[in-house]
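Q: For a teaching session next week I want to show students how multiple molecules come together into a single three-dimensional assembly. I've collected the sequence lines for a complex. Could you give me the predicted structure tokens for the whole thing so I can convert them for display?
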Amino acid sequence: MIELESISIHFSGRPVLQNLSLQVPAGRIFGVLGGNGAGKSTMLNIILGFLKPDSGRVRVDGVDPGRNAADARARIAYIPESVALYPELSGEENLAYFAGIAGCRLSAVETRRLLNRVGLRDADAPRRLGQYSKGMRQRVALALALARQARVLLLDEPTTGLDPEAATQLATLLRELSSEGAAILLTTHDLWHLSLDTDEIGILRGGCLAAQFHAADLSPQQLAQAYLEPR
Amino acid sequence: MRGRSTWIVLAALFAAGMFSLGLGASFWRTQREEIARLPAQYEAQMERLAHRYAKGDEAGYWAYYTASPTWQQPHPLAALAWGVRDVAPLVTWVRLLGLEPQLYDAPLGNPRLQALGGFDLAFVLGILAPCALLLLSHDALSRDASRGTLPLLAAQAGGLAPVLAARIAAALLLVLTTCALLWLASLVWSGLEIRPALDSATWLSSAALHLLFWAALAAAIASATRTPAASLATALGCWVFIVVLLPALVNLALSASFPVPEGLELTVRQRQAMHETWDQPRQPNFARFLSERPEWPHAKEVPEQFTWTWYYAMHELADRSVSELAKSYAQRLRERRVWTERLSWLCPPMLLQLRLCAIARTDLESHLIHLERVRAHHHQLKLHFFPLIAADKTLLPADAARFPRFSDSAPPSLPPPASTPLILLSIAALLIVRPSRLLAA
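A: Of course. Below is the structure for the complete assembly, covering every listed component.
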């Protein structure tokens, strides 16, 4: 699970996150909604251990990424907003390479199986990444998360640039992963998918968690109203 | 590691290495062959003298026309690190005349070519191999930073340090393998003549240690630059500074601090002293000569007409007149060497060159030791001929067999400069490696 407790961080004296606290238990999907500059990516970078907060406590599956980043990252699968992979390699080569760096040696059969599971066809696997759409690249990153059997999944703006079908398939995959026990934290601008595809929703505003809801309690319209209410 | 460009860089390094081996083998073979011809050349000379003085003649004539060759046999590793061997005279034909001009009497070479230095394997390992390593590894992280794969990479590996270490190690391994192949090729090329296995292994390990420093520097550059263009510019800038500017600055500083009299200056002064002595009263000069020649108690007087005794005394007096300058020449060169070694702590390629040349006995110290041997041989000629000349002896062709001959023993050796600085500099470079800065940025 993911635990953030009173996290604060400043850049050049400007507060980016202030007393941010949230929890994502195993098997749950938590969506963070926030405008540009709200601090969503900074929050993910702190969970990954790329940044150290000025104050507060972070735990990833019980591990403090600030102190033991390698151990924490071993438990995290991270999918950035724009999944950049090596264009000169094929989908399966990229998967094998990144999995290898993470310490997972995949056989050719396993690589294909993982790519199939995230919806990539056998014909797509040997194609170079340069010919992949954003959705296909995201699927490779998801396959990587599956290969690593990560207990925590972080996704930065996962539905940006995806067509509705790809976004729906992504949501289905995330639901599968959460049902297998993964704690999933995603950030997005996409109100529609957020209300449909998550269990908990938090609204990040000015570096603080301004509101938190059960997704089931709100319709997309109510969520939009809550998000856009006068600040 | 990019496929094609990696292999192009390694192939270019290997080709440059093979070319240097070809030149080195030819250089070494030429020197060996020239030295091997010396006994026959000496014998031919003595046959001509025997024919000319078949009935015997004054010892002074024999001494005047007898030139005995002196040389320094090249160590097998000299083919790989020429050092000063390509600029120092290979063979010095020594006569009983004044020694100083003879020491610096060398066949004319093209000074522009000599200024370029030798394209030997030491150059390839010390200058080109680091360049290849930097080309292969400078963008170990910046390539990912510019493509956007850096966060994903860091998230998989538990950080960028292991990725950086693995990539730099891979580049280092490839370059080291290429160097090792070149070294093996050098063994085959020389017909496995590089017997001193310890020297040979030390030679290669020095090059490996040197590359370790460059690998650490590559890691520092890769962790400090965010675009491939910036990392390439930084890497090439560092390379030019370390292999070109820094040694040039050290050389300038040493030349200014330890000015060394030129061999030409010694020659001119010696000749000038010689000619001045012709016109001076003989007896006082001869007395000065005898003051350091107690073995000639019977030759107190010197006649006004030409005598060999007076002639060779004048040569020795001319040598004595520049003896302080000659000592200062060697001393200044040694001081320069010592300071070059000290300053090479800051300049790994210089340190490597010094080590490789010291192991190959082609360094300045080996040359100075060789010059001392030539002086010793010249002294032997004096000890042999002076008593005969002073006694006005007539020598027969059979007496030529007893003339002193130069014998070259094993090339002199000094312990090479320690490689500790290479390790310390590598550690220093590693201390500034901070790949996490790229992520924070």
